[in-house]
Structures are given as structure tokens and as C-alpha cells.
Write a structure and sequence with these properties.
The radius of gyration is 16 Å and the shape is globular. Strand 4, helix 2 and strand 5 form a beta-alpha-beta unit. With about 190 residues, the protein is an alpha/beta fold.
Length: about 190
């Protein structure tokens, strides 16, 4: 297997670190060498958070450069636009269709861009967008957006659902396992 490069992007508090830990665990269990790296902006203040998950037979660096990501998993559509330059030609952006206003928009210093996902598609970017927040709420918590998106991403891998569920059990705190499994299933099965 060539190296598989996945960027997980969002804002602080959305659970991108758990998502990267889950993806890293499942890929390691599939027999690949895995490197996970976390880059925090002002994560505790709602700032941008990026995690890199790289896996393959041999992985030498945990960092994904511009134009190298096979997938960008975005917890918010503006974050998808912010990091799309890292996507390789033929790569896919799996994104939540939710809008979370950054501080400049909240303070009135900027305006949230319109039609972000449509503009990316016009440029030839493959977008797989779902309303992950609604599905997370259906699963039991708005904080389950991360698992909804991981469920959606799982459709791109030939790994049985049972293995993903076992990885969730091993990664998530016991009291949240069932809710997270439901969120994952809702994301995986969403059409």
C-alpha cells in the first residue's frame, strides 16, 4: 500500500483528536505503520485544529504537505476551504455542512463566505458533504459530529464495520461508547 494521508480539520472542542486517534488505531490494527500528529491553533478558544494521520508500509514523517492529502475530513465547511490546498489531485473532502462563525465573523470584522462548498466543487474538488450535526444530535449529542464524519469516511476503506466498532470500544470512554457507535453508523449509512 502506498502511504495514505488524511487531514482532520476543525475548530477547538469538536473532537478532532479523538477522530485521529480512532483512525490511527484502526489502520494500525490493519497492519500499517501509522504516524499521527496534532497541530493546535487557539484550540481551546475555538481556533483551528489540524491533525494528520499517515499510514502505509513505512511512514517517515507525520506531517502532510500541500497537495498530498488523500482525504480532508472537515468538521466545518470553512475549515475545508482553508485546507483544500493540501488535497492531492483526485482526493476527497469529507465535510460537515455546518457553519461555525470564526471570531472575525462574530465580531463583525469579516463576513462568512457564501457557497463555499459549491465554489470548491466548481474548482474540481470532490466534496462529500453531510449534515453531521443533525446526525450527531440524532445519536444523542452534538459532540458526536466527529464520529459521524468518521463513519462517513469509513465508506472509502475496505474495512468491515465490526472492526470500526471494536476500535470505537477501545478508543472512546465506556459511558460514551454506545452513543458514538450510533453516530458512526448514522454517518456510515447516510445517503
Amino acid at each position: 500500500m502506498k502511504t495514505l494521508d488524511v487531514m482532520i480539520v476543525g475548530v477547538g472542542g469538536q473532537g478532532s483528536l479523538l477522530a485521529s486517534k480512532l483512525l490511527g488505531k484502526i489502520m494500525a490494527e490493519e497492519g500499517f505503520e501509522v504516524k499521527v500528529s496534532e497541530v493546535h491553533g487557539m484550540s481551546q478558544r475555538g481556533g483551528s485544529v489540524v491533525t494528520y494521520v499517515r499510514c502505509g508500509e513505512r511512514v517517515y514523517s507525520p506531517i502532510i504537505d500541500k497537495g498530498e492529502a488523500d482525504f480532508i475530513v472537515s468538521f466545518e465547511k470553512l475549515e475545508a476551504a482553508r485546507y483544500v490546498s493540501c488535497l492531492k489531485v483526485g482526493g476527497t473532502v469529507v465535510t460537515n455542512s455546518q457553519q461555525i462563525d470564526p471570531m472575525p465573523v462574530i465580531t463583525g470584522a469579516a463576513v462568512y463566505p457564501t457557497d463555499i462548498l459549491d465554489k470548491l466543487q466548481t474548482k474540481g474538488v470532490k466534496i462529500d458533504a453531510i449534515d453531521a450535526l443533525s446526525l450527531a444530535l440524532e445519536a444523542g449529542s452534538s459532540k458526536a459530529v466527529n464520529l459521524v464524519l468518521m463513519g462517513r469516511l469509513s465508506n472509502y476503506f475496505d474495512i468491515p464495520t465490526e472492526k470500526w466498532m471494536a476500535a470505537i470500544e477501545a478508543t472512546v470512554a465506556p459511558k460514551f461508547v454506545e452513543m458514538n457507535k450510533k453516530a458512526f453508523a448514522l454517518g456510515r449509512d447516510c445517503r
